[in-house]
Every structure is written in structure tokens, then in C-alpha cells.
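Per your request, structure below.
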């Protein structure tokens, strides 16, 4: 029997995030190695929690990363490999399979990374999704356009959130777009545009079981904010409401269908205005962005990064236990700001829990025991943010966080 020793984590991220994950690993006695982008050499990493840091040059091929980490593994035992950002999931899964490290492999990874794969898997397990068609066979696409009423959305299969989504209003609009995409068109899918209210469920998953979930609702749909600009808001849904109960059940079914064994998940759903049904939009095996973690922690006391680390450390040995959960309500408001360092001191209601400090951004996290108070404040604050701070820039090809 090999002697027992602390686990060593290789954390991979090409965006500045996951600091609390790394801190918790170190608090639990684990070794932590960070693999990140050269451009983030001076980022705000928790250096006191890191045993070593390696920096990747831009556009480095995956095969070169595998070779570099394999060399590292000659002298450094690596027990867990974790992608802290969605864009690094393929790298982490490839390394796990090459080094035979426990965790999500390439097949399961694609259910959380490829919008077509996750839809087909969900549909196969009776989770309702908007009508869609892969962009492969043009005959299938013509049939789809004739039988599924528009408008539609053309979505990149591999991008995160609303990045790169294009709305198509008429069939004749689609073909020039596909022609322009050329050989890249198979990396997209076409889906019926469903007007409705967009929700997200943020989960902690241990041994295939959703042990924690928090249901929230976006103010404006993220696609509208990403493509048209505006003030981003989201807030906790009243606990025990129809939306809360319904989404918790669908989320459990979805996580089981996609095969997440342990970790965290950020899933998005839409409740259609036309029929009232809840439809699955997408799911990522990561912590939600836009300060959703801070909102969840304000409402419940559960820090998703911290619990993710604790679950990875437990590794299926049955030792993980979810901490006590607080049953309050929270929300986030966030916008690009004209000012370099916007002053939010004029927002002084007692519900202001956290002031977000970020270059050219204005943002707050709110908390209340009253489920109606946070949405009311967010509606008021959104109008004020638009007047006092809001700046708009063209949509990015990829997110910055």
C-alpha cells in the first residue's frame, strides 16, 4: 500500500477566476499548481495558496500542453486536473485521459461544452428543448425551415453564453450566412427562437446527485444584454414557487442526463411566453459568471467555488457534506460604465451587500429576507444605472471573464 499523502491539484484557466477554489484546496492541505495564460502573469492570483505556476503562450497547440504537463508529471505527482473556465475543459479532459487522472473525460465533457451534443442528449432523456437542427445536411435544414416557424437563432456549438449567436428572421437570410461560414458551418446549430423569461439554476453535484441548487431569474435575457447592451440583472426566485419547484426538478433530470458525477453546474432555461413550458437552453460544468457566485453566497451562504473544491478533494469517498444553507434572497446588477471607477455610494439601501470593484464596471450585490424586495430594488436601480453609468460596446467574440 502506498503511503497516504496530500492530493496535488493542477488548476487550468485562461481567464482570471477560481481564486477561492485554489484557496480552499490549500486550506484543506492540498498542493496547488496553476496553469494559466502568459497574459495573466500579473493577475490577482492567490499566490500564497500556489505551490507553482506555469504560463502558457497564446495559441499554444493542445498537443504541446499535453507534452509539457507530461514532463511536469515525471517529478510531480498530479492527482486531480480541474478546468476553472469553460474554454479550458477540453484541455483538462485530454490531460486526464492521457495521464489517467480521475474525472470527466472527453465524451462527457462535450455534453457540457457542445450545444448540439447537450441538446441531443437532453432530448434523448425527455428534457424539453426548443426545436433545433444541426447545420450538416442542407436538405434537413430546408425541411426544418419549412416545418418550424421562425424566427430562429444560429448558435455556435462551442462558445459560452450568448457569444456569437445570430438571429435569423426569414429563411432566405440563412443561406448567405451559411455560405459565408463556409467549412465552419458545421460548428453551428439552428434553433427556434423562443421568447420568454430566462432562468438559471446553479448547482453543486456530488456523486451524480444535486445536493444544492439555487434558482434565479434574469432581468433581460442574457442574449439581449450581450448583443444590444444594457444593464444586467439576476435575482433569486421565490422559494417554493412553481418556477422554483419546476426548475429544480428539470435541473435534476438534466444533470442526470448529461452525466455530471461531481462538481458544479450552471444551467439556463426559458419559460416560453407562448405555451408556458420550460425549455432547456444550455448547461456548463462551471461556476456562473457575472458575480452569480457572490449572489448565491449572499442568499444561501454557499460559495460554489469552495464547495467545488471540497467535492473534488472528497473524490467519491463519501466524506463530502454540504454546509448549512441559508434561505434568503439576493440579486446582482452590473453594467459597463463610462467612468473608470464609478461611484455607487449613492445606492445606500440596507440591502446593498457588496459593491463590485472592477475597471469600467458598475455593480452591486443585494440581499434581503423578503423575496419581493430585491427585484423591486433592481428595477429601480436599473433605470438609475442606465442614466448614471451605462456604456455600450460592440459584442465581443469571446468573453473576458
Amino acid at each position: 500500500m502506498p503511503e497516504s499523502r496530500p492530493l496535488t491539484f493542477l488548476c487550468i484557466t485562461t481567464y482570471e477566476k477560481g481564486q477561492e477554489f485554489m484557496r480552499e484546496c490549500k486550506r484543506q492541505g492540498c498542493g496547488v499548481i496553476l496553469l494559466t495564460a502568459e497574459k495573466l502573469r500579473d493577475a490577482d492570483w492567490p499566490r500564497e495558496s500556489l505551490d507553482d505556476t506555469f504560463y502558457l503562450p497564446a495559441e499554444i497547440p493542445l498537443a504541446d500542453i499535453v507534452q509539457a504537463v507530461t514532463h511536469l508529471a515525471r517529478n510531480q505527482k498530479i492527482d486531480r486536473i480541474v478546468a476553472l473556465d469553460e474554454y479550458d475543459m477540453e484541455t483538462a479532459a485530454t490531460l486526464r485521459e492521457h495521464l489517467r487522472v480521475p474525472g470527466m473525460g472527453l465524451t462527457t465533457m462535450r455534453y457540457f461544452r457542445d450545444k448540439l451534443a447537450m441538446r441531443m442528449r437532453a432530448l434523448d432523456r425527455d428534457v424539453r428543448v426548443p426545436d433545433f437542427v444541426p447545420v450538416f445536411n442542407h436538405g434537413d435544414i430546408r425541411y426544418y425551415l419549412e416545418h418550424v416557424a421562425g424566427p430562429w437563432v444560429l448558435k455556435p456549438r462551442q462558445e459560452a453564453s450568448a457569444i456569437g449567436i445570430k438571429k435569423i428572421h426569414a429563411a432566405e437570410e440563412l443561406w448567405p450566412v451559411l455560405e459565408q461560414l463556409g467549412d465552419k458551418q458545421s460548428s453551428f446549430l439552428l434553433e427556434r427562437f423562443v421568447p420568454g423569461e430566462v432562468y438559471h439554476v446553479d448547482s453543486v453535484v456530488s456523486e451524480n446527485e444535486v445536493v444544492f441548487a439555487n434558482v434565479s431569474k434574469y432581468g433581460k435575457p442574457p442574449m439581449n444584454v450581450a448583443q444590444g447592451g444594457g444593464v444586467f440583472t439576476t435575482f433569486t426566485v421565490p422559494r417554493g414557487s412553481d418556477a422554483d419547484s419546476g426548475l429544480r426538478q428539470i435541473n435534476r433530470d438534466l444533470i442526470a442526463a448529461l452525466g455530471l458525477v461531481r462538481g458544479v453546474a450552471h444551467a439556463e432555461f426559458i419559460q416560453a411566453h407562448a405555451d408556458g413550458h420550460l425549455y432547456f437552453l444550455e448547461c456548463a460544468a462551471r461556476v456562473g459568471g457575472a458575480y452569480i457566485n457572490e449572489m448565491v453566497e449572499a442568499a444561501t451562504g454557499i460559495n460554489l467555488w469552495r464547495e467545488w473544491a471540497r467535492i473534488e478533494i472528497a473524490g467519491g469517498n463519501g466524506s463530502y457534506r454540504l454546509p448549512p444553507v441559508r434561505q434568503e434572497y439576493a440579486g446582482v446588477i452590473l453594467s459597463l460604465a463610462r467612468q473608470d471607477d464609478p461611484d455607487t455610494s449613492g445606492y445606500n439601501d440596507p440591502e446593498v451587500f457588496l459593491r463590485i470593484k472592477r475597471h469600467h464596471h458598475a455593480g452591486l450585490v443585494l440581499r434581503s429576507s423578503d423575496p419581493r424586495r430585491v427585484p423591486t430594488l433592481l428595477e429601480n436601480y436599473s433605470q438609475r444605472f442606465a442614466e448614471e453609468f451605462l456604456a455600450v460596446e460592440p459584442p465581443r467574440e469571446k468573453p473576458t471573464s
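Residues 208 and 261 are 4 Å apart (CA to CA).

Regards,
D.
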